[in-house]
Input
Amino acid sequence: MTTNLSQHFLLDPEVVFLNHGSFGACPRPVFEDYQRWQLKLERQPVEFLDSRRGLAPNLRVAREALAAEFGTSADNIAQVSNATTGLNVALQSLPLKPGDEILTTNHEYSALEKTLAFVARRTGAKIVVAEVPLPLTSAEAFHDAILSAVTPRTRVLFLSHVTSATALLFPIERLIAEARQRGIWSVIDGAHAPGHVPLDLDALGADVYSGNCHKWMMAPKGAAFVHVRPEWQAMIDPLVVSHGWTADNKEPGVRGPFGASAFVDEIEMQGTRDPSPWLAVPAALAFRRAHDWWQVAAECSRLAQETAARVRDLFGLDALSSPEFSAPQMVAMPIPACDPIAVHDALLRDYGIEIPVFEWQGHHIARLSCQGYNTREQMDLLVTALGELLAREQPLRKRGQA
Output
């Protein structure tokens, strides 16, 4: 990194934090804006939470800022606390029937796998899992793997934009277009995408897209959104029926009881809760612009890929993808078979490194996230630590492995 930005973050200086991908890290000025909103809430909670005087206008400002950033209308995007919630809103609203098929991949986030299982059990739909070939080196191979699993019963295409465990950037654009041509709903898990990859929601064209603002956008924890194309908003029901619900239709142009689209009001106006993380989203966008964060991200991507190459050379293990299909700032690095928990704990205890280490479908992985507060010296320490720990003939090696 040419410029280290660690002074802008609140992270423990004693910890080498290489796990931005899990929960993000909020810059100091954004966190201060978040606290400013919380203080306003506590100073005059009635005014703040009153839909007419405070809440609805403040929510609208944040929604409009995010919609402008992501190329859509503020009427198509509603705030939720995390991407899992947004995807549940959509998936639990779909009018599926017994025999309908939900097509997904073997790379999806475990919480959403459970959501799909819940929806399938409740509706009688069937989950079909397409296996993505590894290493992922071809968009055609990815498309073929998914499309070969489409049948006349396929009603939903559920894909990650950036996968969690394997840190792959799926080339989803053509599949979304293909799904629309075939009358299949496309539902995209964008938990890791906002602020990580450029995002134009209307151009992408997914029927449903939900993403987190608290990961790579660096907003406070609890800021996320769900985006639904206008023609499907009437189909969407909130998980909680509260003040925003209306018995009227939610067709495009119909306003809800608090002035936003009916879809937005139903999702956002759900009684007493702290909206401060969402209200700090404009501050996160401003912080990114002030520090030319796409340039920062490009430097982080180079550093992450260089480090992953060093780990490959160290252990002689193949990458899970070619660079263009790896998430820009997050790389799932294969490591020798080991006790993942023991390796994680040793990295933190002996080297002060916080990084996820886990087993995924027979692969042992250390997932590296590189953000503007990380340095090349930290990457050197990681490579050294992995080499020292996984060279040992000790319990860190998986039982029965050399």
